[in-house]
Amino acid sequence: MLSALVTYAAEEGATHNPLIPAWYDIIWSSVCFIVILLIFWRVALPRMKKLLDERAAAIEGNIAKADEAQRKAEAALEEYTAQLADARREAGEIRDAAREDGKKIVAEAKENATAEATRLTTAAHAQIDAERQTALVSLRSEVGTLALDLAGGVIGETLSDDTKAQAVVDRFLADLEASETAAK
User: Which compartments is it annotated to reside in (predicted)?
Assistant: First the structure.
């Protein structure tokens, strides 16, 4: 049988070119191609187009979301920068106010200390003057008594008249103060 096929192929091959198909093969191949083309055109192509459109929409949506996120990030950055600048300005104002308050407190403390020192000095001077007056009164009384006793011893009489004795003591003390003033 093999030999029959080889002889048949040799007879056909002499009249027919093996590179060119037969006319019925071309027709049936064209019909199959057209059917496949129509099915692809009607079914596969719209589905692929729909799929590609969905992917494009998703990509565009993601790009839009990314752009929106970028805008929000930039807005947040600007807001953060503004808040930071405000915080720095406010910190500077607080620092300046604290310095001013510190200066006021120091000035107030100095003023209070000066007033207290003045008050203490005045009180001390008043106390010294009061003690001086007390000492003078005490000294006058003692000096007067001593002077009267001495005068009584010198003249041999007792001076019992208080007004007379007081006048003598006052005159003696005035003379004593005058001599101290002249010595200075």
Answer: Cell membrane
What span, in angstroms and rounded, lies between the C-alpha atoms of 153 and 119? 50
CB environment 47-60: b (16+ within 10 A), e (fewer): eeeeeeeeeeeeee
Least confident of 46-60, 93-107, 152-166: 152-166
144 contacts: CB under 8 Å, gap ≥ 6: 165, 166, 169, 172, 173
DSSP 83-143: HHHHHHHHHHHHHHHHHHHHHHHHHHHHHHHHHHHHHHHHHHHHHHHHHHHHHHHHHHHHH
Q: According to the per-residue pLDDT averaged within each range, which of 15-19, 64-68, 162-166 is highest?
A: 64-68
